[in-house]
Amino acid sequence: MALETIQIQDKLTETFGEDVFHFNQERDVFSFEVAADKITAVMLFLKNDETLRFNFLTDLCGIHYPDNEMHRQFAVVYHMHNWYENIRIKIRTFISGENPEIRTVSNIFLSANWMERETYDFYGIKFIGHPQLKRILNMDEMTSFPMRKEFPMEDGGRTDKDDRFFGRTVDNY
Predict the structure, then answer these.
(1) The domain spanning residue 37 has which CATH number?
(2) CA trace torsion 34, 35, 39, 45 (10° rounding)
(3) Which among 13, 115, 163, 171 is placed 20 to 30 Å from 109, CA to CA?
(4) Is residue 173 part of a domain?
(5) Which pLDDT score is estimated for 173?
């Protein structure tokens, strides 16, 4: 018998109660929200439950919502896959903009190691317990986080982005 989304929702609410909420079907991906302090417990449950078997972390990323209230300014989104039933789920958890940090899941899924480093590198979200949380793509000396909304889109001092170099002038518009 195929695993249904209502089964996933029921198992999660039975085990975690109000710490899992906002269940939604987005196209072919079942999604829900988790309280940030419960993320590792929920991920372990989804991975180890003999019925659910979400044993593959497909993706982990950050999102910045600067217009949200302070305790919901950053989100960490996890995509998991059950290969046996070919079902994907999306888990979202919100964290504070004042001190963006959340527990690592790299001890549950080794693939999370690089994904968490990338999320830290671009958003400044700290993953507590990560074995080597440091920049992965940007320079170590960089003090800002380029995917945050306050980061400027273009560096005004760059001359290689000058429209004249691409055959565009004000007259062409």
Answers:
(1) 3.30.460.80
(2) -60
(3) 13
(4) no
(5) 47
* Segments of the chain with pLDDT less than 50: 172-173
Token pair listed for 165: 């170099």
How many structural domains does the chain have? 1
Quick one: residue 53, left, alpha or beta (phi over 0 = left, psi -120 to 50 = alpha)? left
DSSP β-ladder status, 74-82 and 56-64:
antiparallel
In a domain, 107, yes or no: yes
Structure-token match 């671009």, residue found? 122
5 part of a folded domain:
no
pTM given for the model: 0.86
